[in-house]
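Hi Y.,

Following your request, here is the sequence exactly as I used it, all 407 residues.
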Amino acid sequence: MIKAQRGTKDIIGQDTLSWQKIQQNAKEIFQNANYSEIRTPIFEATELFKRGVGDSTDIVNKEMYTFCIGGADKNENSITLRPENTAGVVRAYIEHNISRQSPPQKFWYFGPMFRYERPQAGRQRQFHQIGIELFGAKEASADAEAILIAQEFLGSLGLNNLEVEINTLGCQKCRESYKKAIKEVLKPYIGELCEDCSVRFEKNPLRMLDCKNENCQKVFERDEIKKVVLGDFVCDECKAHFDEVLGYLDVLGVKYNRNKMLVRGLDYYNRTVFEIKSSALGSQSAVCGGGRYDGLVEMLGGTPTPAVGWAMGVERLFELIKKVEPKKLDYFVVSKFPKEALKLCQKLRRKGLSCDFDMQNRKFAKQLEKAAKIANYAIIIGEEELEKGFYTVKDLSCGTQEQRSEI
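Below is the corresponding structure, written out as tokens. Let me know if you'd prefer a different format.
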């Protein structure tokens, strides 16, 4: 028997109802806030992710599904299944000249992503993300709206006991001095860090703070290192921006914790970064992550454009939300005349009513038994009903029934 690949999962039966609720709530919440849906291809040029996500990230170095079409030596034909969607949305933003439209431009998306990693609860190799991207607004109000929209969406799914962690990475200028200070203080301990952090030390030392290795975390807990990591390094302009973001969150009643160790796992972030966490998920507690990425559009060939966004893993949302119970059909047609039954089903469905009939044409008792399980009403078409031109409608909740000339 051929089974689904490791790290992939079929979504079937009642589970699809919860997925549909997640997607429907997303559509309503985002469109009410003037976000338009965008659908990008599931594969892009590999170079897009190398430049956009960053070649010092685990995603690019270890987790991408990359294929070379026409031979491995033809780099221009290298394509990658998307491991995240921000880079693809930015590519579309540039390619279709959306920057010429009046800012801000707001988008939301829902779709599958692909990363080669160890499957675990709420995390698969083919997984799904919901996200938003907002282009053209450098103001702190954009950061605040992004966080608020995430909270509103999660609240619509019944998820309210959540924790927002937030930090600022500063701009490119002040971040460079921060990187230099971190490298200086960590240099004597480079032998105690994991292999990945040894590489990050040279390429992007901030990424070391995102390492989950226990030995690395112990190093970061040393007093002389914490003093640098938790110090104030951002310039006055970046500090003012961050203070304004927090001011918006205070006014909006969004509870948050400042976490100076929070850097996020992608290279394109600057200034505001945040995560929304749930203790119900254990060690992998983040259900939403995002931040500002003001340099990414320019990095990928567009005009300088401030931007902010976030993404949520749908599999993790599914683990947290209350499962949706299947809704009963409006009607089930019970009859030994399948052509008449299907004809009536067609008529009712065209009216927007849900209904079904027994294709196997089993005994009346069996049909009524099935109807009682899946429908609110049974419509009985027997010989008498056909001869006299009426329907017998039975209320399956109480057993009463009546004759009707029309449904």
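The mean pLDDT is 89.

Thanks again,
Q.
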